[in-house]
Amino acid sequence: MSNAHDLPENVAGLTSSNHCWNGVHVERHEYTCTGRVLFPVERNQALTWLGAQLEEVGRDYIEARLAPDTPNPHDYKVRPLYIAPADMALWAHSSDARYLKCATFSFDANLLQESLGIADSLRVIDVPRFRFSDDRLWTLIGLLTNAIGDPDPTAQLYGDSLTAAIAATLFERPKEAKGSQPGLSAIQLKDAIGYLEVKMPARVELAALAQLAGLSQSHYCRAFKASTGLAPYQWQLQKRVERAKNLMLNTNGCLEDVAVATGFADAVHFGRTFRKMTGATPAAWRLDKLT
């Protein structure tokens, strides 16, 4: 929570959290406001900025402006998104705002495109875009910001995959359907499984897996899922749960020990994930299998 003395006029509170995936600095901000707001948006102007308004309450919508006295010329759209190229100043304005939850993504466009192996680009991020709509992009952004602060090792692959999907949506030209999606070769799949098993339950970056296969991250995600039926982060989580089952059946370790051994923060986190994936609590599952 920011110090109230440092906040703009009529902004009563600000809570922020952040994480970095694939070189993209992802931030989630929640503003509590008490009326008319007008303030410069603090951001690194050396980087491209993508913004999404996730939730807002008030008698007037908050808008991005290029100057404090220049209203946004575009009509409000549901699930609004914004793109501001590097070196562009921005202002936030509303005649009456009460609450805003938003996400911001800051990145070096050239480095991100290079790291993800995206060669053919529309370069739409070189042009400012205010209040445009893209439901797929908005949904991906919401999922990614919800992962901020998740200590689970699988969150790394999950966030890497989402940033790759977001970048592909921003950069790549639409691809024509060409039948079934090709998967990984037998050697690529063997390398992937071996790497994930050796690293388990530690965090694994999508970039490392993609590099093993010699593919871009966005293409790797599609190929891995075509080969296994699961996204890389889903595969990793499933294998951790399978290892936990093995430990519960073949050792006398308590659930806390099993949780730690399989990379979960604690027994509560482990139990919540286990029940979501199996339909039973770890204790109930263990009792059923051992009796």
Account of the 3D structure:
- This protein is an alpha+beta fold and 291 residues long.
- The protein is built from 10 helices and 7 strands.
- A hairpin with a 2-residue loop joins β1 and β2.
- α3 runs antiparallel to α7, α5 crosses α6 and α8 crosses α9.
- The chain starts with 10 loop residues before the first strand and ends with a helix.
How do the helices and strands follow one another from N- to C-terminus? EEEEEEHEHHHHHHHHH
Give the fraction of residues assigned to helices.
40-55%
Topology, number of strands: 7
What is the molecular shape? globular
Q: Main attributes?
A:
291 residues; alpha+beta; seven-stranded antiparallel sheet; 41% helix; 23% strand; globular
In summary, what is this structure?
With 291 residues, this protein is of the alpha+beta class. The chain contains ten helices and seven strands.
Itemize the secondary structure elements and their pairings.
Layout: E1 11-21, E2 24-40, E3 48-58, E4 63-65, E5 81-84, E6 91-107, H1 109-115, E7 129-132, H2 135-146, H3 154-171, H4 186-199, H5 206-213, H6 217-228, H7 232-250, H8 255-261, H9 267-278, H10 282-290
